[in-house]
Design goal:
The complex is a heterodimer. By secondary structure, chain A is mostly helical. Chain A has 14 helices and 2 strands, in the order αββααααααααααααα. A two-stranded antiparallel sheet of chain A has the order 1-2. The interface between A and B is large, with 95 and 92 residues.
Chain lengths: 301, 272
């Protein structure tokens, strides 16, 4: 009896979370795929065809024959979508690169810091991650706007004579992404750099490497797993980002997260927004697979 | 060799300045007398007082508190189970899919998760409201809990579990009396992470929510779109303060427990 109870307990450990994710994560994706092949209709739900289980096998055949790829064709015909995809990936890529450039020296310095203050530094990096994303993006509006803090300082110092227009441009989006996602970059970099064996660098320097050469030939290659993890952790969500382009970007900012949001909430076109989501997923499927792989490897260690 | 060079100190100072200056400015200007957010007009707490009279904001805060508490609690249970499943059962059918479904939500753009959940709720005829927001929040935050707890389980010395079982404890009892106390700090920080993620979420809530279930971020967002106001600075300051106190308290508790545990272990070894 005890054995049976324990057997059931063991099963449930897997079945409960697995079942939950199947229902609330996988099934919804299947539904998105199915709606992306439907047509918009003025009804509730606002698309056709709707499958009714009561119509049986004939109904299912009829339902399937009405599904089409028209929405995907539509995405290729209107250049707005293509431009939005390309500009999302470009903005995400370059801002991720910037985040890496900003984050690497921080992570490197943290790994070199005296052991006693490292936990405090680590907590200081994690803390902004816990505070609201929305609030942190909002904080930048007051800094970047024409009469904001940045312009006030620059005008006071006499560096500029006219306020810079930064808010509602792509520059603001870059700043927003770098700022918001910095902890995601620093943490994996730090954990890779902290594990690094300091004697390797000493050996390289003893063998005649300059400090920079030792860094470039020893430290950096050994920190690559952290670089890859950080890059993916920033790049993937940044590509589909909505809040940052919406609050900091302007009319020139085309990003697919914003397009999807507008398509859904303003145009109420559920089939097209589903198609936009499916294509975005296809764009991200390779980086996501790489991320999964890196996670699985890290687990194996 | 000392590598804590002035270059490193410089990077740290600059980096942390960049991370914290915007939040500090936001906090300072929440105590600004002036209605203009970027012009200092003297110290005042008037915006905090006006918050107390803002019924819509208070309602949203109450919705958010209920959502965050409920979803974090359920997500912690599910996430801990998922972490156990991932670390303890290395072979079962669908494990690849399972681990994929744990890691994918960590990077999945919010708009996709939100849209897919909304379409799901419509398809199964579930009325959108506070319940659907809770279900949505459980789904993404349980994955974060799973990752946090899993990393603790991986460094867990399983021989003490085996010892308990050798001494006649059932697996269930072993879990409750041996495993759970050891992983408790990770479970607690998982709960806190789930709580703040829920507190924070705008995009997924906007999709999953219906009339009468406006969360605080949704309320803040709709006001931010109209412009920066000192009132939002005040509400943000309160949120930041709550989270900061929570995180620091949790890290102190974890550290104390860790020190205590090490002492206990040393004592046990000394006796043995």
């Amino acid at each position: 009896m005890v054995r049976l109870v324990n057997g059931i307990f063991n099963r449930l450990v897997i079945v409960i979370p697995f079942g939950w994710l199947l229902i609330f994560f996988l099934v919804p994706f299947v539904i998105v795929l199915r709606i992306s092949m439907s047509q918009t209709a003025i009804a509730m739900p606002p698309y056709t065809p709707v499958f009714d289980i009561a119509t049986g096998w004939e109904g299912l055949k009829d339902f399937l024959s009405q599904l089409s790829l028209d929405n995907f064709l539509y995405l290729t015909q209107d250049s707005l979508y293509l431009k939005a995809y390309i500009s999302s990936v470009t903005i995400a890529f370059f801002s991720t690169l910037l985040t890496l450039l900003v984050g690497y020296p921080i992570a490197y310095a943290m790994a070199q810091a005296p052991r006693t203050i490292r936990p405090t530094l680590l907590m200081l990096v994690i803390l902004p991650f816990w505070t609201s994303f929305l609030i942190r993006v909002y904080a930048w509006i007051a800094i970047l706007k024409p009469e904001g803090f940045l312009n006030q300082i620059l005008l006071y110092l006499g560096i500029i004579h006219e306020p810079l227009i930064i808010l509602n441009t792509n520059t603001a989006v870059y700043i927003g992404i770098v700022y918001s996602y910095l902890p995601f970059m620093v943490l994996p970099l730090y954990s890779a750099l902290e594990k690094l064996d300091g004697t390797l660098i000493e050996a390289a320097e003893d063998l005649g490497c300059t400090r920079f050469q030792a860094f470039w030939k020893v430290t950096f290659p050994l920190s690559l797993p952290g670089v890859v993890a950080g890059f993916l952790l920033v790049f993937i969500p940044a590509t589909g980002e909505f809040v940052i382009p919406d609050l900091l970007g302007g009319s020139e900012t085309l990003m697919i997260g914003k397009t999807l949001w507008a398509e859904f909430f303003s145009n109420r076109d559920w089939p097209v927004s589903s198609a936009v989501a499916i294509v975005l997923l296809l764009v991200l499927v390779i980086p996501i697979a790489l991320f999964q792989n890196a996670q699985a490897k890290a687990q194996g260690e | 060799m000392n590598r804590w060079t002035s270059f490193n100190k410089f990077s740290i100072t600059l980096g942390f300045g960049f991370l914290y200056l915007p939040i500090l400015l936001l906090i300072v200007y929440s105590f600004n007398e002036s209605k203009l957010v970027t012009v200092w007009g003297g110290f005042s707490t008037r915006w905090y007082a006006s918050l107390l009279e803002n019924q819509a904001l208070k309602d949203a805060a109450w919705v958010t508190a209920r959502v965050a508490f409920t979803s974090a609690t359920i997500a912690t249970v599910l996430g801990t189970l998922a972490a156990l499943a991932l670390t303890r059962y290395t072979k079962f059918r669908g494990r690849f899919l399972f681990s994929g479904m744990i890691f994918a939500p960590l990077v999945m753009p919010d708009v996709i998760t939100g849209l897919s959940l909304l379409l799901f709720f419509v398809a199964v005829n579930l009325d959108r409201g506070i319940v659907t927001v809770i279900l949505a929040h459980i789904t993404f935050s349980m994955c974060y809990v799973a990752v946090v707890v899993q990393s603790r389980l991986l460094s867990f010395d399983r021989s003490i579990e085996e010892a308990a079982m050798d001494l006649g404890a059932t697996p269930t009892r072993t879990f409750l009396q041996v495993t759970l106390p050891v992983i408790a700090p990770a479970v607690v920080s998982g709960w806190m992470l789930a709580f703040t993620l829920s507190l924070d979420d705008l995009v997924i809530s906007s999709f999953a929510s219906g009339p009468g279930a406006t969360t605080l971020p949704m309320k803040i967002y709709s006001q931010v779109r109209l412009g920066v106001t000192p009132e939002i600075n005040a509400v943000s300051t309160i949120l930041v303060t709550i989270v900061t106190i929570g995180v620091i308290t949790a890290s102190i508790i974890t550290k104390r427990r860790e020190v205590q545990r090490q002492r206990d272990e040393q004592a046990a070894f000394a006796q043995g």
